[in-house]
Amino acid sequence: MEYTVTLLILMGISIILALSLNLITGYCGQISLGHAAFYGAGAYCAAMMTKAGIPFGVALLAGTALAGALGVIVGLASLRVRHDFLAITTMGVGFLFLGVVRKQDWLGGEMGIFAIPDPGLSKTAYMVLVLVLAALVAAFSLYLKRTWMGFAFDAIADDEDTARMVGIDVPRYKLTAFAMGTALAGLAGGLYAHDIKYIGPDSFSFIESITILSMVVIGGIGSVPGVIFAAAALSVLPQWLQFIAEYKLLLYGGLLFAVMRFSPGGLAGMARGMAARARAGGAP
Amino acid sequence: MLAFELTVQGLVQGSIYALIAVGLTLVYGLLRILHVAHAGLFTLGGYFGVLITNATGSLPLAILVAMVVVGVLGILVYRLCYQPILDQPPYVALIASIGLFIAMEEIYRLVFGPFGISYTDAPLTDTVTLATLNLKQGEILTMVGTVVLIGGLAVFAGRTRMGAAWRATVTDPAMAESFGIDVIKVRYLNFFIGSALAAAAGVLVALLNNLVEPTMGSVPSYKALAIIVLGGLGDVRGTLIAALALGVIESFGTIYLGTILDRDAIAFAFLIIVLMIRPQGLFGRA
Questions:
Q1: Where do the domains of chain B lie, and which CATH numbers do they carry?
Q2: Predicted local confidence at residue B108, as pLDDT
């Protein structure tokens, strides 16, 4: 039971994290290879605050706000550079975050932060909190898709220049996407820090950014159910099956490659394709 | 005198960056793909270098074999991984490439072991003193080797018919094709040369550190991406300048910025500052 609870917490955090990147990369079409930096910023901020005696709820919100503020700054970069340049810039942000944190003694340096205070909830209550937040983020994502803002995101992802031409305020929506996505990553970070009770620079490395990206990509860029499914499966499978844990990175890397090579729409794309074929009455 | 030593050390490191980054920028120039898995081939070059040197005792042979075998593997990576997805949006190839790179590192870990391998009898470790400067023979070989390889590439691209076909294809693929150039063959050539240079860099790094490990490609890989962006994506001359400049900046930065930033973040701090001022890179044209 205890073990199931631990797994469900991990799964909930992964779902929040993957959906947060999905807002930026899936909805708004802005590729980010440095999402772990915001996850980390939220985690460090919340952990430092609860260690200083500030209540868990306040710390969690502060981590969310800090990550979102940093996200706006990086979002400003997305107004300057696009596509491949943006991918490399966001990757750079990830490395810069790590490079700075590693050298800050007050953030624990290479060693990280130990003994993060308990949020004062039982393990099961914490699980409920994480899962409720994950459900809220999912509901928010689905709601967003149906609003004018969701439409604007879609237009920008599709073709930025055309979106500009029809009068969509592209910079504003891009910044909004970055702010929302990175703030939610910060929320996930605060939840993670108070679950594991230890964080260090290695928890938020480039590989972590790629892990988050692989959940979005394998699930199907932009698809909420696909991303949730992939985040749940990819976070829990390596824990469940020990022999997978050994080859976790090989699995992530291999899947990432295979999905892009054979079905760039991800699992959601595959499901849509199958549904379309079924509707066509089994005709090839 | 410290400044001079730091500059030379920076140039040694910059030479390695240059050998790796040239292949990346060639691929980008021709196909608009950010070929992250390039660094996986670099690591493999290092493994071949150590294994063949240990087996035969000949470093030149090891460099040659590593370059040829990895060059051919580079062609295979293009043929099997990139060619089928060329008509997809650019992020598809980028993410596929990252996945491939991570998988490659894991395969090296499983095949060659997690702790890395070394030369049993490391060649070229003697120190040479030039005026006040102490340099290992391996470091001299790195710089000389880079000049020879890049110089050879420049002669090949500038003076031969095949080189002319190559440059024509980079400038305008459709036009080149209508003049009877086999564009596919040019792509193979491009991947062969880029990967062979990366393999040479791998052997040289193995020599400098006397160690090859599965993850030795990670940091150069991401840094090389920063370098080609600084160099203006696809611009070989800009890439070379950016690589050498970054090597030197890093060696000074480690001394003067070491307390606030670690070495690997310096490259990206520099990159972000440059991109915010000049979104097309240091040497790119708008």
A1: 2-277 (1.10.3470)
A2: 92
